[in-house]
Amino acid sequence: MTSKVIHSVNEARVLSKKVLPRVVFDYIEGGADDEITMKSNVDDFNKVRLLQKVDGTISDPELSTDVLGKKLSFPLVLAPCGLVRVMHPDGGIGVAKAAKSAGIQSVLSTVSGNSIEEVASVADSTLWFQLYSAGGRDESKKLIDKAEKNGVHTLVVTVDTPALGNRERDRNNGVTTPLRITPDNVVGLGLQVLSKPVWTVRMVQDGVKVFNKTRSKSKSKASRNDGKSMLSMAASPFSWEEIKWIREYWNHKLVIKGLMDVNDGLTAASLGVDGIVVSNHGGRQLDSSPSTISVLPDFVKEIGGKLDVLVDGGVRRGTHIAKALSLGADAVMIGRPYLYGLSVSGEQGVSDVISALKSELKRSLILLGCKSVSELRSQKWLAK
Ligand SMILES: Cc1cc2nc3c(=O)[nH]c(=O)nc-3n(C[C@H](O)[C@H](O)[C@H](O)COP(=O)(O)O)c2cc1C
User: 111 lies in which domain range?
Assistant: First the structure.
């Protein structure tokens, strides 16, 4: 089953659910509180309607585009995601390799489970680094310096986690927030793990301590990144003062991720950042915040053209990428879609998901009668 080629994000999701213990699948899948925002991210993408035009001469539309000074083979970036090594031993290395072979960029999370050294060495210039810091400026400085030392030239600062979202699936599965495996929940997890032998064998071979108690000393450190336990992150608050300081300290491309209010977009632009990601963390933080696609047009109107505007949350199809670009985004990011692929067949699964989205986007352009991704950036492709 695991060597099967994946043809769509939905298919990857179904297979992922079969492979993973519920605790891990729910960690990927879940959102905050009642998951209102998480669901509306996808629902609102589905509500946008595309308008085809007769052309009939297009068979090979141009999908490549420049984002933050990098050429992408199509407008997709793999979003930063934590704990990827508990999904598959390929972890962050597999994710970065799949992005590189597809000619796109990936973003390594501070809490991915793989060190920046090992991931940067396989990714070359296709890796961006996402910053969380539970330890204030000193910790930020250490992480930023390490990113630069490893040749990373785009820093993505996530600003929507001043507290951790209330992920009730995790709590109901008996894991604590931050997600942690403790002796108290080993029994429940034991049953889940035994029923998913493929995952269990992979993890044991990789040396991940599925059943081990994490050290309480490390609880508050977002930077702990050894991937050998199911440790998650702590809250990571950033004020605009901190962002200003990071802008002065970091001489390369700077992206702020997690903006939903256009006034915050204006503040980010005034501080000289190079890009923003309109994001509600895939509905995992503030529940009842609007869907990202519904607020995207405000950002494009106010700051589009001044800096690069990316959007994530709910992208599941090539048509969704087409819709985001028609509404003015420069590129989209995906989180869960590639995590499903990773959990099914590691690097290959991530590559399959990327390929599926790329071919769906290509088909969408042909069907729309649109020659290129740059031509796609127009409301003329949207039905009223
Ligand atoms: C399992 C999981 C872990 C995540 N970890 C991080 C993280 O470490 N840093 C971060 O900035 N965002 C994190 N996110 C949010 C993603 O970067 C992204 O914003 C979100 O997944 C996009 O929504 P989508 O999953 O619907 O594509 C995580 C998302 C998921 C699903």
Answer: 9-50+61-168+231-376
Q: Using the mean position of ligand 1's atoms as its centre, give its distance from the Cα of residue 279 in Å.
A: 9
CA of 24 to the centre of ligand 1 (A): 14
What confidence score (pLDDT) does residue 170 get? Answer: 85
Q: How many domains does the chain have?
A: 1
Q: Which of 81, 177, 256 to mutate to test the pocket of ligand 1 (most atoms within 8 A of CB)?
A: 81
* 3-state SS assignment for residue 307: strand
Give the tokens for residue 351. Answer: 């590559």
Which residue out of 7, 88, 252, 281 is catalytically annotated?
281
User: pTM of the prediction?
Assistant: 0.93
Residue 220 CB coordination number (10 Å): 13
Straight-line distance from the first to the last Cα atom of the chain, in angstroms, rounded to the nearest whole number: 43
Residue 210 lies in a domain: no
Helix 36-47, helix 318-326: angle, nearest 10: 80
| H or E element that contains 310 | strand 308-312
CATH number at residue 321: 3.20.20.70
pLDDT digits over 129-183, tens only? 999 998 899 999 999 999 999 999 999 999 999 999 999 998 888 776 555 544 4
Which of 86, 289, 314 shows the shortest CA–CA distance to 179? 86
Quick check: is 211 in a domain?
no
